[in-house]
Amino acid sequence: MADPLALLLANTIRATSRGLTDAFSTRESTREWLVAHATNVGMYLDLEAYLPTEDERVALVDLRQNVRALFAEYVAPQPPSSADATVLPAFPQALAAINGAAAPTLRLLNWDDAGPHAEHRLLTSDDVSTVMAGLADATIEFFSGPEAAQIRVCPAPRCVRYFLKSHPRQEWCSVACGNRARAARHYAQHRD
């Protein structure tokens, strides 16, 4: 099962052995992420030829921070991801920003031989507004659906990711994080 787009967007910040990395750190890396994920929300733009301006990159970072604020609110009273908990926008502002970014999205009910299904139409005239509307709409769809109940913060040392708990015994976002947590616990026990 592929991760929902809202989770992929929230996890564009990752911890590595060198520290935090951000998929939106440059205009080029932002385009790479958009190209890799644009079709997940039905955006059929020519993003290969699109290079966001610095202002557009910053707008996408702001949108991501608002999405991360929604994740932080959802996991409360557990602590949010340590990556940016102190710099996230307040929840009411984040919610308003997501709804505002999704405003140019129109969701229609389409009924064909396969039966009823939702169809998204993005009513924007420029690439970045289309991208932001699609990402915001995917976030709204995710948080209003049943998968949101599975959101967890990875408790492994140095990890800053959110994940969906897909198994009752799952504690970490990945096997690597589980190994890192067990190694840290073992080291702490034998150090004392």
Automatic annotation (TrEMBL):
Q: What is this protein called?
A: Zinc finger CGNR domain-containing protein
InterPro entries xref list? ABATE, ABATE_dom_sf, Znf_CGNR
Q: Which PANTHER family match?
A: BLL6575 PROTEIN (PTHR35525:SF3)
**Entry superkingdom:** Bacteria
Source organism per entry reads Nocardia aurantiaca
| A Pfam family matched in the record | zf-CGNR
Annotated ranges, domain Zinc finger CGNR: 151-189
